[in-house]
Structures are given as structure tokens and as C-alpha cells.
Amino acid sequence: MTAEKTRPAATGIAWLRDKRILLAEDNITNQMVATQMLDALGARVDVANDGAEALEMIEVKAYDLFLIDIEMPRVSGLDVIRSIRKAAAPLCDAPVIAVTAYALREHREKISEAGADGLIPKPLLGIEQFGRDIVTLADKSYQRGVDADTPTEEPASADEGPVTMSVFKALEDSIGPEAMADLLGKIDIDLGRAADEVRTGMAALDKTAIASATHVLISVAGAIGAADLQRLAQKLNGAASGRVQGDLPTMVTEALDQIDGLRAFVQARIARAKG
């Protein structure tokens, strides 16, 4: 962490310029969205592909701020946060922010108990909003006695088809049409793989496979504002993991239908971009 002690709120999103940020995120789509936004804000970003890699990178390089996904392989985001808070100064004093689609009360409590300064829910709602949310929560890291709250802005209801168009357009405006077309191509591939894995898992009654596929689905759907699919994938993930009760076959059928609808939307946008 640098020696500069300027309070984030004093300069707003300009505080992020030249800040060294470690983004720990296992989903390639979310890596792409977040890094492009952070680049636009002037930050210097390194990406860890999972929690174990994040811990290795923390050992060899100093960072000003950490953005941590919660559900990651090998080492969870919660364990990464705990490790940072247990470390010696100045590492333990750095702002640590969870960036996750898991934003229910039970998740917020666990994230707060682990030592995060707060969380930013996925999907990310544009460059400036992302920057403001980071600065707001980073500012709270200078007030350790104050509980960090999640940014309260919620995505609008997804009543415009498979995605909330305000969220989709904000992302498109943030990263530009060329990057958006590239992102949509990756999302289409991810959606297809997730659907195949959910079908295979259901056929084999393999709840672990369904839970793994829906973890990816939560991130991918959230990235472009497919709020209905994101919520359904969260419920399906909970049912497959045994955390909540639910009619697994019915939820799988509904999820596959929604994936088909979202893929049709994504493919149409890709075709429009090429045309």
C-alpha cells in the first residue's frame, strides 16, 4: 500500500487514478468488464483467477485496494479477506471490497464478519457508478468503527425482455461497441456451456455439477443485467447445494428456458453489431 493517506471521499473517483488494485475474480467475463471499467478510471489493475492466486500475488506485491469475488475455487473470497485482515500493517489496513452476485442478508453478514469494508453487487452499473461505489466503501476503511453498508442502488425490474436494458446500455456505453461485441460472444459461449452442464447434471442427478454450473450462470447473467435469470440461478444454486429447499427439476426447466431466451437476445445483438 502506498504512503499516501488522502481520504478517498476528498477527491471522489479521481482518488482511483494510479491506485494499484488487485481484482480476484474467477469468471473471465466479469474480469473483462471490471478491468475495462477500472482502466477507464485510471487505476492499475492486476487480476487473480482464484483465491489461491490472490494470496500468492499479495505476498509479492503491494496493493492500495482489493476487489474480491466471494465464490472462487481453491480458496474462497471470504478466506482471502480474512487473510488480509490478519496480516501485518499496512496490508491489513487496505480497503477490501467484495464484488459479488451473492448480496442477500446472510451473505452480507458473512462478508462483514470476514472483515470487508462492504460489497458492490453484480451486475456493475457503469464506470462512474462503479467508481463512486469503490470510493464510498474505501472511505469507510478509514473509519474502522463504522459498519460498511452495501451501495443501495438496485437494478431496475427486468421487464424489457431477458435483460434490463438500462443496465445493458450502461455496460455498452462504458466499454464501447467493439468490446461489447467481444464480451457478448464470450457470454454466449458461457451460457451454452452452463446450459449443457445443468442438463447433464440433472440427467445424472449430480447436484454438485448443477451447483458449479449455476455459479457461473449467476456471474454471466448478472454481467449484462439478466436479473430474472440471475435470481433463478441463485435459487437453483441454493437448492443444488442443499442450503435451501426447492423443486430442482422445475427450476432446471425454467432456467434452461431463460438461458435459451437470453442466448437468442445475445446472438441477435452480436448479429446487429456485425451488420
Key terms:
275 residues; alpha/beta; Rossmann fold; 11 helices; 5 strands; globular
How is this structure best described in words?
The protein has 275 residues and is α/β, with parallel strands linked by helices. The chain has two domains: 133 residues, Response regulator (Rossmann fold, 3-Layer(aba) Sandwich); 110 residues, Four Helix Bundle (Hemerythrin (Met), subunit A) (Up-down Bundle), CATH 1.20.120. The chain contains eleven helices and five strands; from the N terminus they run H-E-H-E-H-E-H-E-H-E-H-H-H-H-H-H. Strands 2-1-3-4-5 form a five-stranded parallel β-sheet, with helices on both faces. Helix 8 packs antiparallel against helix 9. The longest helix is centred in the last third of the chain and has 27 residues. It starts with 7 loop residues before the first helix and ends with a helix.
